[in-house]
Design brief:
single chain; 108 residues; mainly beta; Jelly Rolls; five-stranded antiparallel sheet; globular
Amino acid sequence: MADVYSTKIYQALGGGLTVDNRQVLSADGSTSAVAFIGPVWLSLSGSFGGGTAQLQVNDGVNNVDVQGGSFTAATDTIFDFPPSSNTLNVSLSSATSPALVVRIVSGQ
């Protein structure tokens, strides 16, 4: 079976998908929560504005920080979630004039 990766990223500012399926955070806040199945690739690039980006998973009630998911600089990281549905988002805090590009790609 061939590996087919689908990109599930949303543009926060414009309210729709961008050409390359990414979400840009230009102030403190969170990306839209999206459900993924299994492992995901997280890419953070652009300006963090001195802030911290944190990958979060929803536990059914709250968004919970993912261990090892805190970043203050660009990254391309794989998170090996179990093969079940996980609702993920990235939260940016303590930033001044950021332009953080967030991409999350799932193999499912």
